[in-house]
Request: fold
Amino acid sequence: MKKTILALNNISKIAENKLKADYEFTTESASPDAIIVRSFAMHDYALPESVLAVARAGAGTNNIPVAEYAKRGVVVFNTPGANANAVKELVIAALLMCGRKISDGIKWTETLKGKGAEVGKLVESGKKAFVGREILGKTLGVIGLGAIGILVANAALGLGMNVIGYDPYLTTANALRLDSRVSVVADLDSLMENSDFVTIHVPYMESTKNTINAANIAKMKKGSAIVNLARGELADSDAILEALGNGTLSRYVTDFPSDKLIGVDGVITLPHLGASTPEAEDNCAVMAVAELKDFLENGNITNSVNFPACNAVRQGASRVTVIHKNEKGVLAKITDAIHEENINIENFVSQSRGDFAYAIIDTTEPVTDDLVGSLTALDGIIRCRVI
Reply:
C-alpha cells in the first residue's frame, strides 16, 4: 500500500521526484502517513491520528507545536544546513549595506525622478551624503557557529575581514569546518567589545531571547553595526534603538521587521528572505523528503527537533520501533514483552532526549500485530509500529 505524504505548502517538485512509485505526494489527504511544511501554521491545525512524522523544509520550527507532537509520538524533522548558503549570501549583502549607505542612496536617487538633464549633476553633488566605509580589515563577530555561522565566518575571511566567533555549543564536526583563522572566544562580551560588525546565527528559544541586549551593546565600539537575520527576538529592539540614538550603533539590519523598527534612521528592514531562493527551497525539500522516507521505511531518525537521533542498519526479519517515555524500567518491559512472544532480538538500539526516548529493535522472527498490541498497552509506551 502506498504511503502518503501531505504537503501543506507549495513544495519544490524536485522533492516529489525523489520518491519512489509506492508514495503518494499530495496536497489533500484525510489520513496521511507524514506531512511536509514550510511556513504553514500548525499550532491550530487538526493533526490526523495517522500522521507519524512532520518535516519542516527549513531550519526553524516555530510554526509547529513540537512539544505537543512529541507527547503524541509524532517525530518532527527540520533541515539544518540545507538553506545555509542562501542565508550566508544575504548576510554578506547585509554587511555591505551596513558599511556603505546603499539603501539610503537608492531611496534618494528615486527622488530625482523627473529632474531630466539635472540628474547627473544632482547625483554628483548629492553623493557625499552617502559616504560609507569598507569592510576590508574590519572585525566581524559571529554569534553561533552552526551551519550558517560557519559559512558566514569563512566567507568574511575571504572578503578580508578579521573574524571572531562565539558558540558555547560548538561541536567537533563544526569546529573542523571552521577556518583556522577564525578566533573563537569564550564569552559573548569579548566578541561584542572587539567587533566592528556583529551577526547572530542561533535558534530562538526562551534561553536565547535578547541575546543581544543593552548590557552587551554598550560594550561595543562607537559606530558598530549589527545584522540579525536569524530571529527578531534574539535582539532587544528597544536596546537597538537606544544604541542607534546615542551613536553606539550606526546600523541595524534585520529581516524580521516590526512596527517599532520600520522607518527608523539607521535601521534597514527586509522581508524574511534568507532562504527565499529556488536553490534553497530545492535543497530543503529534498532533505525533508529524505528524512521522512528513511523514517517511514526504516524507522531511522535524523535531524529531529523533538526526539533523539537514532539510526541502525536493518537486520533480521522484522523491525519494531517504539517511542516511549524516558523512564526507568521501560526498556525492560519492552524486551520482556518481545521474549514472551517467543521472538528473538537480533539488534537493539535505544536513545533518549529529555522526557522521551526511542528504540529500534530488529528481530530474528517475523513480528505480528499481537506484539504491537502488547507493547502499546505497556505503561510508558507512546507509539509502536512494525516496519
Summary: The CA atoms of residues 225 and 251 lie 5 Å apart. The two ends are 13 Å apart (CA to CA). The domain at 84-125+132-269 is CATH 3.40.50.720 (Rossmann fold). The first helix runs from residue 13 to 17.
